[in-house]
Amino acid sequence: MYAWPASEVPALPGKGRDLRIHDTATGGRVTLVPGPVARLYVCGITPYDATHMGHAATYNAFDLVQRVWLDTKRQVHYVQNVTDIDDPLLERAAANGDDWEALAQRETALFREDMTALRLLPPRHYVGAVESIPKIVPLVERLRDAGAAYELEGDVYFSVASDGHFGEVSGLDAEAMRLLSAERGGDPDRPGKKNPLDPMLWMAARPGEPSWDGASLGPGRPGWHIECVAIALEHFGMGFDVQGGGSDLIFPHHEMGASHAQALTGEHPFAKTYVHAGMVALHGEKMSKSKGNLVFVSALRREGMDPAAIRLALLSHHYRADWEWTDAVPDEAVERLGRWRAAVSRPDGPPADALVEEVREALADDLDAPAALAAVDRWAATQAAGGGTDEGAPGLVSRTVDALLGVAL
User: Which residues have CB under 8 Å from 290's CB, separation 6+?
Assistant: First the structure.
C-alpha cells in the first residue's frame, strides 16, 4: 500500500535537542536517544470515516516527533498501518449498502489527501491488515503451538497469562481492563475463555463475511492487535523506539500488542517508549465515529479553511491534553496564520537566531507546541512594531516554522 508524498523539510542552522517525552508505561518523562535511525510505529485508521480532528491531532503529534528527530540529524524509519478489515468497517458498509473493500479504499484515499494537505510526513511503510495476513497467520500458529493461544469454537484466543509483563503498558487493574475491553472491541463475557481479558487472534469465518486462508487455523480473518505486531516485527523487530497513537489505544490495543510480541519472541519490551495523544471533543463529548460528532479535515478544506490554519489549530493544544473543538479554535488559527504570514513577508525584521532555539527547546520539552507558537507570536509582534533590520530573519523564521512545526508560510 502506498502512502502520500512528502513535503520537503528545510535544514536549519545548528542541531536540535534530544526529545524528552512522557512515557505511558512508566508514567514519567524519558529522554529519547535513538541510534542514527529512529524507529516509530503509529497505529493507523480503520477506514470507514476519515479523517476527523481527533485523527489529525494524533498524527500531528507524531509528525512533530519526526521533525524533532530530523532536526537532530537523524533519519526516521516510520511505519503506520491501516486496519482495512475489522467489524466497524463491515458494519458501516452493511449499514450504507456499500461494498466494504470499496469503502476502505475510498476512505483511505481521502485520508491520504488530508495528510498531504496538512503536510504530515508520510511513513516509509504504509501497510494494510489485509496485505499482512500471510505474515499474521504464522505468528498465530506459533503462539498456539507454544501454548500461548487456544481455540474456542474455531476462534483462536491469546492467553494473557502467557506474558509475565502483561499490564505494564497501561498500569490498569483487572476490573478497569475488563470494562475497557467490553467498550473497545473485546468480548470479556464470552463463555469458555480462560481469562475474560484474552483477546482474539484469529476469527473463524462467519457466514456472509470476508475470510482468508488461515492454513492450519482454517478460513477466517485476523484479530485487531496481532495485525500491528506482525507489521512492526517485520519492519523493526523488538525494542523499537516509540509506539504511538491516541490515548484510547493504551488499552487494549497497545497492551495486548506488547504481550503478543513478548510471548512470541521471549524478549521485552516490544517498544522502548509508549506515547499517546489526548482526545478531541465536540459539544462536550470525545469525537468518535460511533457518536457521529465529528469535524472532518476534508470538510474544513472544502469550506475554504487553509490547511496551514488547520495545522495551527492542532498545534495550539498540547498533544497529551484532552481539548474541545469550538468555533473559536479555527478563528484563532486563521488569525494567527495571517499575522505570521504578514510578519515574514517583510524584507527584514528582528533577529531570529534565538527564536530557532526557543522553538527547538519547546518541542524537545514533551512536544510543547503551544510554547513554540507563543515564541513565534512574540517575534511576529516585535516585527509588527518595526523591531529590526535583519534581512535574513523573515526567511529563517519561515524555514523554522516549516521545518519544526510543518506550517508553510
Answer: none
Average pLDDT in the chain: 96
Question: Does 292 have pLDDT greater than 80?
Answer: no
* 290 confidence band (pLDDT: 50, 70, 90): low
Q: Which of 320, 318, 276, 366 is nearest to 21 (CA)?
A: 366
Cα-based distances in Å from 211 to 137, 218, 287:
12, 10, 31
| C-alpha cell recorded at residue 250 | 493504551
Cβ burial of 333 (10 Å; 0-12, 13-18, 19+) is: buried
C-alpha cell of residue 322: 484532552
Q: Is it the case that residue 108 has pLDDT exceeding 70?
A: yes
Q: How far apart are CA 163 and CA 66, in angstroms?
A: 31
Question: Rounded distance, CA 245 to CA 205, Å?
Answer: 29
Task: Give the number of other CB atoms < 10 A from CB of residue 18.
Answer: 14
All residues at 6 or more sequence positions from 194 whose CB lies less than 8 Å from its CB, including other chains: 150, 157, 159, 161
Nearest to 247 by CA among 318, 174, 166: 318
As a whole number of angstroms, the distance between CA 31 and CA 21 comes to: 6
Query: What secondary structure does DSSP assign to 157-177, as a single string?
Result: EE-GGG-TTTTTTT---HHHH
- 152, 199 Cβ separation under 8 angstroms: no
What is the radius of gyration, based on Cα positions, of the chain? 22
Q: Specify the pLDDT at position 387.
A: 74
DSSP for 46-94 reads: -SSS--BHHHHHHHHHHHHHHHHHHHTT-EEEEEEEE--SSHHHHHHHH
CA distance 210 to 90: 9
pLDDT in tens, 142-180: 999 999 999 999 999 999 999 999 999 999 999 999 999
Beta carbons of 362 and 375 less than 8 angstroms apart: yes
Domain annotation for the chain: domains and CATH numbers: 20-277 (3.40.50.620), 306-405 (1.20.120.640)
Residue 49 pLDDT greater than 90, yes or no: no
Reported pTM:
0.96
- The x, y and z cell numbers of residue 151, run together, are 481455540
* Residue whose C-alpha is closest to residue 405's, from 178, 148, 166, 120: 120
